Amino acid sequence: MRPRTQGRRRSRRSFPSSFLRNLFFFSSLLTASRTVGGEEPPKITLERVVDGRGNRVSDIAGASVKTGEGRAHVRLVRGLLRSDLVLRHETRRGAEGKEITVDEIRLGDGAPMRFEGSGPGGRIAASSPVSTFRYFDRDLARKTVRCNLWRVVQEADPGLLDAVAEYAQTKQALAEAYGPEELPVLTLLAVEKRPPHPSPPARRKVPLPDDAPEAEALRAAVLAALGARA
């Protein structure tokens, strides 16, 4: 009886190990196939804004990646303010097949302000962690709309209004057009109707080398912002 009992015990012990070996084997094959046939890696750009003498003003990291049927873009500005300014823009398909755009703006680890729209001319939902306000983009000039947006900004992070003003001054100095991920900046600028700077300081962009001391941390930060929401 003992040899049979020992034999049964050996078979019971060997089954899990062989099963795990097979599981790990097929898991490794699946991982390899996902790596080969996976989506494109994120595209990252690193730039530095300098003044007229070549001194650093801020560093800018941009990243974009395909997400299912849409694409996500992130712009992170470091050094312009005490905290990183993060802008995130994503397009995706809604339940009815319509394209939906989702934009976020935040300072560092602070609460974001979020804008969700359903295409040109559609209604936009601006939200904080506390409330949501819906409006049409064509009504942005109305005082009631601006007042409600101001309220949502205060609920999210009051510092965002000063942040976009500083950011807009840099854009003006660089004579750059605004991209799709910068829509929240334009919206918040309209909330307080701040005029352009009459004489913006000299600014220009230069590439930030990959081996620069700040490059690795900047790259990691923009990738984290890119993957903050799936």
What does this molecule look like?
This protein is an alpha+beta fold and 230 residues long. It has two domains: 38 residues; 184 residues, no CATH class. 38% of the residues lie in helices and 29% in strands. The protein contains five helices and nine strands; from the N terminus they run αββββββββαααβα. Strand 2 and strand 3 form a beta hairpin. It is globular and about 45 Å long. The N terminus is likely disordered.
Mean pLDDT: 83
Task: Please give the count of helices.
Answer: 5
Give the helix level as a range of percent: 25-40%
The number of E-state strands comes to 9
Distance between the termini: 59 Å
**Strand line-up of the largest beta sheet:** 8-7-6-5-4-3-2-1-9
Any key phrases for this structure?
230 residues, alpha+beta, 9-stranded antiparallel beta sheet, 5 helices, 9 strands, disordered N terminus
What's the helix and strand layout?
Elements: H1 2-37, E1 43-50, E2 56-67, E3 70-78, E4 85-93, E5 99-107, E6 113-117, E7 123-127, E8 132-136, H2 143-156, H3 159-174, H4 183-192, E9 204-207, H5 215-226
Antiparallel strand pairs: 1-2, 1-9, 2-3, 3-4, 4-5, 5-6, 6-7, 7-8
